[in-house]
Design a protein that fits this description.
The complex is a heterodimer of chains A (133) and B (214). Chain A is an alpha/beta fold and 133 residues long. Chain A is 35% helix and 30% strand. In chain A, a hairpin with a 4-residue loop joins β7 and β8 (127-131). Chain B is globular and about 75 Å long. The chains are: A alpha/beta (133), B alpha/beta (214).
Chain lengths: 133, 214
Amino acid sequence: MVKKNLGKIKGFTIQFLPYTEIKGLNSTERIKKILGIVLNNNIVILQGRLKTEEEARLIGDTMAMIDHVKNFKGIELAVIGGNGNNGFFSRAKQNLANAIAGGDMGAVTIIGPATIVKEIKKNPKKIELLLEK
Amino acid sequence: MAMKMLQNFFKKIFSNIFKNKKEIKLGFYGPPNAGKTSLVNRICKDFTGEELGSVSKVPHETRNVQFKEKVEISYKGSTLVFKIIDTPGIATKIDYEDFLKYRVPKQEAKKRAKEATQGVVESIKWLDDMDMVVIVLDATENPYNQVNITIIGNLVARKIPVLIVANKVDLRKADIKKIESAFPEYDVVGISAKFGKNLEEFYESIFKVSKKVK
């Protein structure tokens, strides 16, 4: 794998990714696309959400990249809203439907590099994006 | 002679029942420093007399999946046989500089960080092998962490029964109600692995949830 170097952070952008951009991609391509954006010091705001197994794979691939990309320390990840917000189980059931229909358009996924996003604080009523100084 | 044959017959049947008793693969998952190894050690000590792994205040102390086979847990006259699997804490970021705050030397911190990233990958891979999972959460931390939701989502997708443990209830900041409201569809047991508090309720829940194992 080619060793990348993120260097010193001089700034960042927030990139909105419509679900249509990843809809036709397979899991590997989706994760590659998202991590590609994050590695360029961008915070991704994805319309919809990944499948749960894709989320797990995103975490696994992120860990593998920490060893190969200098100054990359990982990601912060949060999924907000979406169908069935009243309970996890109903969300899980809804996810199955979403897996067939694609996406859960009511949800928004935020993924940012840990060098920029210190923490995403989440509770049922609000979300806070804390940035590194 | 007939009596002896009868005795042998029953002995054979009982030994076969015991031999065929399925070993339930019980995984312990959760974020780093939630107390997974402390709880696993407590269980192993209670039922085998020896602990499984080392514990530390420094996060990512467990960096390899470690397990103990044929752990017979008894509760109210019933016994179940488990393969206890302790996994490294799952995180989305690992920075060696975080370990320096715990006075870990720089080279060792870098090594620890590298091993920790590999540990997370290993934990995720092991998800497919579990029959049942205990999610260990730190009751003093915010449960609405995406890592927790992702792990549980993956277990639901694999139809693996889940029990949630809210650890560290001995601490003043602990808030079990917050964990219960975050995961209302699951049994949440508040315990203190460090002080062995409420383990009876934990074992009762383990037996209850194990009935869902296919």
